[in-house]
TrEMBL record:
This is HNH endonuclease. Gene3D superfamilies: 3.90.75.20. One of its GO terms (molecular function) is hydrolase activity, acting on ester bonds. Residues 166-183 have a biased composition (Basic and acidic residues).
Amino acid sequence: MDPAMVETWKSIHGFEGLYEVSDQARVRRTGRAAIQGKGHGGGARIGRILASCPTKKGYLAINLWKNGKISRKLLHVLVARAFIGPAQGQEVNHKDGIKTHCWLDNLEYLTRPENGKHAYRIGLRRPANLKMTAHKVRQIRSSSPWAVEDLLGSMASQNPASRASEMAEHGAKNGRAHEAREF
């Protein structure tokens, strides 16, 4: 077996002697977790690799048992804590941006602002102040100058603040111009 392919295992914090996590993001049972409850039979097979399941947000999670109680843990957090160590005030970041890639080489700790900047850099997030979609930008660039004015005008009419100033400037009220003015 290639030495570079050797999987390293470490105990999971808070579950020492019961579970281990590997640098390849696998979790195995190392001791009897005293699973008690309907259909569990009082224990489970030692050495078994546990299955992970995705959360609603797309991260992989694992159910760990201890003293008859279940605890749901995020897999990337278990790997980072076991191999990188605990990090106060920082989040675990997936370097490639894919939430299901939880192996050690793909994880790092970042502060929340750094994590947000990373997500923006790799295209997972758009800037919060972005006003136009990529489609609108392409449409403007390929249009004639008159079409651009029309397009920007229609965008301005969707903005309540610019609509109010436009009505004030042109003497409109409730969207209708005052046509019956006497001079």
